[in-house]
Amino acid sequence: MIDSLALAPRTNAAIRPWRNLRQLALALSLAAYFLCFNWGSLRVHFPLDGLGNISYYHEFSSWRLILSNFLPWRGDSRPLGALYYIPIFHFAGLNPLPYQAVLLAILLANVYWVYRFARELGAGEVAAGLAALVSCYHAGIANLYYNAAFVFDALCCFFYLATLVYYLRVRNRGHILSTPQTAIFLLLFLCALNSKEMAVSVPPMVLVYEWIYHRPANWTTAALLTWIKGPARVSLIAGVLDLLDIYGKVSGPTAMTNSISYHPVFTLARIHDFQRLAMQELFCSWAWTPGWRQILELWAVLALLAWWNARRRPVLPFLFWFLILVPLPIEFLIGKSEACLVLLMVGGAIFVAVLFADAVEAFAHFLAREFRLPAVGRPLVVALMVSSAVFLWVREQRSLRLSIGGAPMTSLGFESWDLIQQMRASSFRPRPGSSVAILEDPFVDRLDMYRIGRLWLRDRTVNLHVAGQGPLSPEALAKMDYVFTIENRKLIQLK
User: Fold this and answer.
1) For residue 4, is it within any domain?
2) Domain with 433 in it
């Protein structure tokens, strides 16, 4: 498709400065829009899940924090998250601002990856820019932008897209990945796997890309074997990493699938529940409750649009399979929505953006031909229509953002924030190997006070007992080196 913003044919040398300036303007505009919508999230407090994540990784030894990222068969839960939480905790402790700032930096980098991903798939600049705009803020996955407990989804999106962009960039130049390039690809993929389980769909998506963009010229056995040994080779090697990771997640007494939240149930009811939630979130239409008829009709329309002109637009059938395969690791789990749908949002945004850009281009061409517009007329029509769509999108997202900006965003972490402030202000540091008791527990979940206390003490050798673990006998209490209580949510040292 001819770039709708080009006014006349030019040489590459003449086009390059204008293109660079245009891309710089787009990057600055997207960054400004992203910060405008998300800057306020720097004021949020710690979610209890986030504190639980820090506490979980804080118990790891330094060697385990590093090695668990290279031993997927062990089944350690999302070990790359430790490289986010623990360095920040080391320098910032229980100050939530740095955690949120780093999360926003990751999400802003994801905007870039969305743009590059769309371009490498063959989408035009307009479509890629629109998809990047959508990824700056989408109200259907709003908790991704203000809740650092969902950093796993942000990291998975980052490395998932980085892995595919790296692969596509090499393949679009007509090369098969060399051994060093394969190693880099596998390292990026391993980082994605260590971020969140949805990354297991990377090898199938690479295989889909090869089949759609570089399929064998014929169906002979020799041609298929050549294709498997060549273009399909990297995806098959990555599949071995997949199997090791899946083995770690489903086997052993500490397997992730032992938890009810991560135990898949392969039923049609689970598929329906996931599809309903996904459509409500991605379309920002929570009052709508789609049934099977609406779900099947939507997928039929997507399939028709994807294959209507598949030869000219291979990006669309690729994205159709992207929307099918990417959510499979979470589609049979309970209630996975909002931030968990970030990769689906990316795929859907590029799909719709490509269709919209093509429709705008066709309509502008029709108007230019029918009304004999001057040379500048068609790009002006395109610019007007794209600007109108951007205005409507931003206005709708701003309206939704304002409703979310009150509750739940500003109320996040209210259960623990007053105690955390007192702990941060305290100069108390227990002796290594000592015992600390906290006699009152304001939390419903007995683990919450324990986790917060462990992070406050910052010493794995200290023995901590909280009220949620049960009362202490007078003898055991007397042996405690330090005793605290909480009265009217005030932390008081008794001993």
Assistant:
1) no
2) 417-493
Residue 417 in tokens:
């924030």
Residue 239 lies in a domain: yes
Same domain, 63 and 186: yes
Instruction: Name the pLDDT band for 30 (thresholds 50, 70, 90).
Output: very high
How many Cβ atoms are within 10 Å of 175's Cβ, its own excluded?
10
Cβ neighbors of 355 (< 8 A, separation 6 or more) are 305, 316
Tell me what pLDDT residue 2 has.
36
- Alpha carbon distance 452, 357 (integer Å): 50
Q: What is the pLDDT of residues 97-139, one digit of tens each?
A: 999 999 999 999 999 999 999 999 999 999 999 999 999 999 9
CB within 8 Å of 454: residues ≥ 6 apart: 55, 58, 59, 464
Distance CA 257, CA 249 (A): 6
**Alpha helices per DSSP H over 284-413:** 292-308, 315-325, 328-331, 342-370, 377-406
User: Domain boundary at 370, 387, 409, which?
Assistant: 409
Q: What are the distances in angstroms from CA 417 to CA 187, 268, 369, 386?
A: 38, 41, 63, 44
Distances (CA, A) of 199 to 132, 145, 156, 205, 350: 21, 20, 7, 10, 19
- Write the pLDDT tens digit of every residue in 220-241: 788 788 888 888 899 999 999 9
Cα distances (Å, whole numbers) of residue 266 to 205, 270, 328: 22, 7, 11
Percent of the chain with pLDDT over 90: 52
Amino acid (one-letter) located at 115: Y
Residues 366 and 479 in one domain: no
Residues 305 and 282 in one domain: yes
Whether 455 and 94 have beta carbons less than 8 Å apart is answered as: yes
